[in-house]
């Protein structure tokens, strides 16, 4: 098979992966706290005895766009948005600690503080629980206070504090469940006392839908060009075989 086919095929495969990432970003344009996925690619020259005129396309380590999304003020006491850099620690379904910017919280039937998709929110001492039926207030430092039904302001009791961390951007990576986790070998994270939250607000997705649509069109054109190269190489191969068979 013509070696051009392999070269074009590597580019077409990575273009499909890029298109899948862009489509996922576009599907999450309304997801609270979503970070756009970024796929990186690089050209790798083919090493051999022939003249180095070819290069394959290989995927580099995928990452995420870490810029903040827009804020929406909801005035709901259990909605929080992290101000500036920082992440909210939660317990994933696998039991491991994960990090998210999605701050739409709720209180479960057993008093557990949960995210909108049912994950336990972590405090400095583990999962946070509040007295059932109490009114919950979250301070800008992540302190959680609760007031029981019928109690006065003097009845406020601190029940915990959100575990807020601020890892370096290259120390965390997105998992298949949408949570970010520490990369292998990264140092464990300590609670960052300087991270602040905004109560009664939510951070939206940082995906720009116009840019995502433009990227989808560009990827489609790029894939079409690579397929034409593969088809051209295949046609040349068939003509060469026809000439050789006529000898």
Automatic annotation (TrEMBL):
This is Flagellar basal-body rod protein FlgF. One of its GO terms (biological process) is bacterial-type flagellum-dependent swarming motility. Keywords: Bacterial flagellum, Cell projection, Cilium, Flagellum. It holds the Pfam family Flg_bb_rod. Residues 5-35 form the Flagellar basal body rod protein N-terminal domain. Coiled coil: none annotated. It comes from Cupriavidus cauae. The basal body constitutes a major portion of the flagellar organelle and consists of five rings (E,L,P,S, and M) mounted on a central rod. The rod consists of about 26 subunits of FlgG in the distal portion, and FlgB, FlgC and FlgF are thought to build up the proximal portion of the rod with about 6 subunits each. GO terms for cellular component: bacterial-type flagellum basal body, rod. Residues 199-243 form the Flagellar basal-body/hook protein C-terminal domain. PANTHER family: FLAGELLAR BASAL-BODY ROD PROTEIN FLGF, FLAGELLAR PROTEIN.
